[in-house]
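Review form for a predicted model. The reviewer records the input and the model, then writes brief findings.
Reviewer: anonymous (R2)
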Amino acid sequence: MKALPLAISSALVAIASVVALAPAACDDVRAHIYAARLYEPDRGCLDPPSSIDVVDGDDPGLGCALTCLASVPVDAGDPAMIYVSTMCPPYPTFYDVSGASPDCVRALAAAKDSVLCSADGGTRAPADAGADAADTGADAADTGDAAPADASPDVSSDASDAAADGS
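Model under review:
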């Protein structure tokens, strides 16, 4: 009969040890999802953001420089999957972030121009991107011509105000 109480107490000690150590073990493990947009080279556009890996460490968030991530192919003949992201490092382990892949230039350009893949198989980009660029140049020229004309009435108005005050 002494064996049964000894076995129970040993089991209780083991359980108590696991329960006591479990919170300490959980505090040391930190990981986060690394999210990026897949570049589709045939369509020249980016898919919606998706998780591409789980990375050790606290989530650093977004806001870093736009980075191209090329997956390291499992088989030598497979093409690399190209992703772009503004998530901060650390980067996923099995991705090349050097930008050496030829598709990185096109993927980064698609990201900068916001060329997104549509569900219907097409692409969409901001419709007014070209018009804004043209308007910006015209507005700058108009502002340059208008500034001297605007400055002259203000100066004469200020001078006449000062004369009226007796200054």
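Findings: The chain is about 45% helix and 25% strand.
Further findings: The longest helix spans residues 129-165.
Recommendation: see findings above.
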